[in-house]
């Protein structure tokens, strides 16, 4: 594992010095800052824009739950799609630019190369989710006057596991598929399949497919058993990293 | 003397194409070895196999005494490599890149400080503070050479190290390679013959994936000089050149403007017997007939094609 720490340090510096510091953080911070405010004022905004069409229909009073579910839905859709697109080139960009050749002819194994990338970017996502959730939590408390922590944090952490699974998946796909758009397309396809699979209760209960709905359920403050979906998602993520390393080992550069 | 690189029967095939075809090669430790060949001959493919970036289809490749398919981090730590088009992280400065590469080798901080300053100086990049994204191709090439030396390698593999350099940069890199003689084995591929003649002890010439000649430069040029005849006649040099070109032993014939004819021959004995007869048949005067001197360029051209018959 010589070179793992140095290469991981490079990945961290690359996040800080390139477009990576703007895209995912920008998206998550935007949703964290606007989510609670939008949740609070959405009924007024809709009434102001379409009061004639709504007639006597009245919206229930907004609460912190709306801010929480809004944050989780934004994570589960826009943020996840952005993650899939951003990480479609996590490995292939280094092959294309020739940097992989320069690094992998040094004492850095291909397994270390893959593991460093997956580890650093999973940690990066974790930091972003924690910061975004903290901002959502604080703003919700300001806007609604109450913000119980457990529902929001358990939902966000359950989604984080799903996000890490997709970083592992995109690492694997980026090894197999050189064009970034191809890998991203395959990643979106896998997401669609998981969403469909989650409709079948046994899969939803015992596999990572359950993580498509569990974060929203947790954000609503409802009890749900997330143990097996979380465990299987983490195991699958580890398996995908191992597969990515094995596939990369066989690639000629 | 032991071998830094020993290749036996190496073949590398892509689909139906033999990029390398039964290559045998021995590079002695401490030598500066020039690996010559026209574009597409297979030079880069061989370096990719040597560095483990590509796998041999068949054959045995040993590097520093280890089979290349089993080369681990401890062996890679003793090798320096510059690819033909080095890829850098454009957002780093030259110093940051050298420090990053040094850390990949787990070089201690003090040694790394010394080497980084020395190599930045060698590459002429000491005062350059812009990121690599703003570098010219020559600056990148010099940085590429510098990073290949950061670990003070026992074996230095360079793919076309001078191709993007201006004359001053080329001279600096060649001087640096010369200074490594005896301490580091240098194996570099190029198609710039003047570079090879200037610094190399030994060369191999690759053509269409096959090694067509290998040996010390002096030995190679003297071996092939035996195949060259210089002929000077009083008149009718053009017609005589055409007569000679029809002979089966004449590999190439070049007639100069002053009536000097340069002939590359495949059978010197037959040439010695036949040329005077052809001169007599043309009723022209024979001024000079002697064995020619061959440079590396002549050897290269005669082996990989390009002669005029």
UniProtKB/TrEMBL annotation, chain A:
GO terms assigned for molecular function: ABC-type transporter activity
Transmembrane helix among keywords: yes
Segments crossing the lipid bilayer: 21-39, 75-93, 114-139, 151-173, 180-200, 226-248
GO cellular component: plasma membrane
UniProtKB keywords: Membrane, Transmembrane, Transmembrane helix
Record carries keyword Transmembrane: yes
Pfam families per record: ABC2_membrane_2
Designated name of the protein: ABC transporter permease
Source organism (scientific name): Cryobacterium cheniae
UniProtKB/TrEMBL annotation, chain B:
Keyword Plastid: no
Record domain ABC transporter: where: 5-233
Keyword ATP-binding: yes
InterPro entries in the cross-refs: AAA+_ATPase, ABC_transporter-like_ATP-bd, P-loop_NTPase
GO molecular function: ATP binding; ATP hydrolysis activity
Signal peptide annotation: none
Keyword vocabulary terms for this entry: ATP-binding, Nucleotide-binding, Transport
Recorded family membership: Belongs to the ABC transporter superfamily.
Protein name, UniProt field: ABC transporter ATP-binding protein
Native source species: Cryobacterium cheniae
Upper taxonomic lineage: Bacteria, Bacillati, Actinomycetota, Actinomycetes, Micrococcales
